[in-house]
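Section 3.1: Structural characterization of target chains.
Under the original work plan, the team committed to producing a structural model for every single-chain target entering the pipeline before any wet-lab resources were allocated. The record below documents one such target. The sequence was received from the expression subgroup and is listed exactly as submitted; it comprises 541 residues.
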Amino acid sequence: MASAITSWSEENFSCSICLDVLCSPVSTPCGHNFCRTCITKYWDEQVKYKCPVCNKLFDTRPDLQVNTLLSEMVDRFGTSVRVREQPYVEPAEVPCDVCTGTQLKAVKSCLECFMSFCQTHLEPHQRVTVLKKHRLAEPMDRLEDRMCKIHDRLLELFCQTEQVCVCQFCTGGDHRSHPVVPLKEEYEVKMAQLGKIEAEVQQMIQERQNNIQEIKDKIKCSKADADREIADGVQVITALMRCIERCQDDLNQMVKERLKSTEKQAEDLIKELEQEIEDLTNRSSEVKQLSHTKDHLHFLQAFRSLKDPPPTRDWTTVEVRPPSYVGILRRSLDQLEETLSMEMMKLHDTELKIVQQYEVDVTLDPDTAQPRLILSEDGRQVHDGCVERKLLDNPKRFTKQLCVLTRQSFSSGRFYFEVKVKDKTGWGLGVVRESINRNSFIIVTPETGYWTLYYEEYGLLFSDDPDVRLPLRAELQKVGVFVDYDEGLVSFYDVEARVHIYSATGCTFSEPLCPILCPSLYDYKGNNSAPLIISPVNQTD
């Protein structure tokens, strides 16, 4: 019977007046069926009583008879229709736990049964006396996870002290003195925090992408420098035919090895950055996925377990330092000095032009000047004033050595400056560690923190233990000082002659370096009165 009913259409159980499914169906003497309310209202408005379907007239208002069989069939048909009309569950909705096969959308969840029901399977909870006492709530998935394990009550509150979800009964127990708020309120707070986390992650990703681009740009420049250096070397070496073929091979190998080392460093940094980006992207995906969660409880429980950001390096202090090629070709030609003298002059000129590109603007610091020294107002000249002045004590000041430092110091990269020494019979200049002893006479060597060139009556020398005596082709007028901090290189140049004087290689720098000028004493005969002058670089010299 039931299968037969479900095969009928809605028209078989419709009222001819309201055109809807019959409600409390009654029959007229002529055998037609109507809703009791519809036919009653219809006859109330008529003078004559007739059937709305067949128009049969009745002398008196007929007594309406309840159609028991039809009423039962309508009830069954209505139930079948309601089941068919109930919506199927969508991916983000809560399914009925009772439905088999195709699951329907749950309309209520029972906090006693720990189950969710569609409209059809909810019917016992609306009819059976015992089930009517069960607490019903809006549909919730994973209902057993939403109940307090201690009090078997719905988790509706959030403890801000212990950062956990609690039920109403918990607030009278272990969480009695703790501040608690509704889940929705804490959800909104955490959602705002989630947005901040997402912004921070995106910023970190962008910063690392910028780091990668900076590294690639520096490598591109390094390759250009390497190509230019190799081209210059090949031009020089080729001019000397077979006798310097070995020099050409050595040059190429040294340049390429340094470039390869730098590229390897860059590749490693890029891989590390890409790995950090991948880790951060994964975290971003987790954050985005969580940000779409509408379920307060699930969100807060998942938020608590959200992992800390993956460990990342502070990239603000990381950089790929292009390799220095200064002096490579020169060192490869030392053994062929006689044959290569003309080519060496060309090389020195090219090398000086390269290092002059790293010119820095430095001025002398009066707080470091020994009391005999007189500085110009612009801080670019210094000479011996013969008389030691009484100055305020300053821990930065030299008290014994006739020296002065610049205001500027350098702890990375490359820098170059020039000092005019013309008309002086004695002087010293170079770079020193910032922490050198300034209150006593010491042996001036790289071990004590000095990389300095001196000129005196005995000639030109690099101060070391022992001193390095250097040839002087002509009277020096201007000296250039170049430092590659990262390569551990300090080089001196005769700017006017466009030649290299000396290089200290393999130096170890562990702190900032300061340029130093020592004008030497102004003797009683009036010698050495000229100042040492920090001069601007003129690459056309």
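The first helix runs from residue 2 to 7.
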